Amino acid sequence: MISIADLIRSRRQREKLVKRLNEARIPTEWGDFTCYAYESLIKRDQHVRPCAGAVQGEDNVLVGACTANA
Fold it and tell me: 44: which residues sit within 8 A by CB, 6+ positions away?
């Protein structure tokens, strides 16, 4: 037997509900950003995530997101 929390944790680790479509480097007056484009495999919504600097292993990373309904 497993708990609901165990089931949720397992599904989050194994199932992918979004796919990365593309990435682009964007220079701005506030620094260089990398923008990642994703698409939901459920609703087909597209999302863009701008990111500045390395975020792997960091806590409390500030990111923005934009959504475009396809």
Answer: 70
The pLDDT tens digits of the residues spanning 26-46 come to 998 988 888 999 998 888 889
d(CA 11, CA 55): 24
Residue 48: C-alpha distances to residues 1, 11, 13, 27 (Å): 39, 24, 22, 16
Predicted model pTM: 0.59
The values of phi and psi at residue 31, to 5°, are: 125, 180
Q: How far is residue 63's CA from residue 48's CA, in Å, rounded to a whole number?
A: 10
SS (H, E, C) 28-65: ECCEEEEEEEEEECCCCCEEEEEECCCCCCCCCCCCCC
